[in-house]
């Protein structure tokens, strides 16, 4: 069995210090095998915010895998935004924009979906490109069928149940066709500051393979969207997976909701 702690949207520069400290305590208590951080470590991509985010990561007691979010690209310094959008992220946080954690039970691949600009007015929207999709295929094609396969991005592949028109990561359909082919089991993301989980087939009807999704709320930021600070605790045990949501209640993180799935005949079903 492998236990993943999935945290997202930390937004150092606009955080609640009490929540940060409680999160560190709770993560140490649940003892994950890997902590996955799905982007937006900073609020504006400033040097001091990246230093604070790095200090947080250095206090984690478990290995971690991290990808950037759109807020990790400088938003005020346009020269930095366009000339070297992820220079600060790579200096302070992680040089590898395609991080991989792999062992005999699980393979977790991170992909950067944050972009400095796009063909739309809201540059916070993300995209996945053809090179990243090809890289994911090469990684997972080399992994055995008994290994549980996870992709981590900042931007979502599945909208919230009550907001089906939410904009998803660009080229989601193309990426999902590849993920389907190479046996991806789970997608982790953030960006929306909303927590939920489900199956991509509920929205992407062309996808035939059952691929689960877990979206995480903001773990530490004061930028809440009608949800408390929270993170996902995910237990993977072969053809069984459990999602627990750990929610800030004002004094600490506590268990709030859970979902259990079992894979039968190649499809994930609620247990």
UniProtKB/TrEMBL annotation:
Keywords recorded for this protein, A-Z: Hydrolase, Iron, Metal-binding
Ranges where the Calcineurin-like phosphoesterase domain occurs: 3-194
PANTHER family xrefs: CYCLIC NUCLEOTIDE PHOSPHODIESTERASE CBUA0032-RELATED, PHOSPHOHYDROLASE
Protein family membership: Belongs to the cyclic nucleotide phosphodiesterase class-III family.
Which protein, by its recorded name, is this?
Metallophosphoesterase
Biological source species: Skermanella cutis
């Amino acid at each position: 069995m492998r236990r993943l702690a999935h945290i997202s949207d930390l937004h150092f520069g606009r955080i609640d210090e009490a929540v940060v400290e409680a999160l560190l305590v709770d993560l140490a208590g649940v003892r994950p095998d890997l902590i996955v951080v799905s982007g937006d470590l900073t609020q504006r991509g400033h040097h001091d915010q990246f230093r604070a985010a790095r200090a947080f990561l250095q206090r984690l007691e478990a290995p971690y895998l991290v990808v950037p979010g759109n807020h990790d690209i400088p938003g005020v310094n346009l020269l930095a935004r366009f000339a070297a959008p992820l220079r600060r992220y790579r200096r302070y946080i992680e040089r590898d924009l395609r991080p991989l954690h792999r062992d005999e039970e699980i393979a977790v691949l991170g992909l950067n979906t944050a972009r400095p600009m796009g063909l739309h007015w809201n540059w916070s929207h993300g995209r996945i490109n053809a090179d990243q999709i090809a890289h994911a295929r090469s990684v997972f094609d080399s992994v055995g069928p008994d290994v549980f396969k996870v992709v981590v991005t900042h931007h979502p592949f599945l909208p919230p149940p009550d907001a089906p028109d939410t904009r998803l990561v660009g080229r989601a359909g193309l990426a999902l066709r590849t993920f389907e082919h190479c046996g991806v089991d789970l997608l982790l993301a953030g960006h929306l500051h909303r927590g939920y989980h489900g199956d991509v087939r509920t929205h992407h009807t062309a996808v035939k393979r059952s691929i689960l999704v877990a979206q995480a709320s903001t773990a530490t930021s004061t930028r809440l969207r009608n949800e408390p600070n929270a993170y996902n605790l995910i237990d993977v045990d072969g053809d069984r997976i459990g999602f627990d949501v750990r929610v800030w209640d004002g004094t600490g993180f506590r268990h709030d909701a859970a979902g259990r799935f079992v894979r039968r005949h190649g499809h994930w079903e609620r247990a």
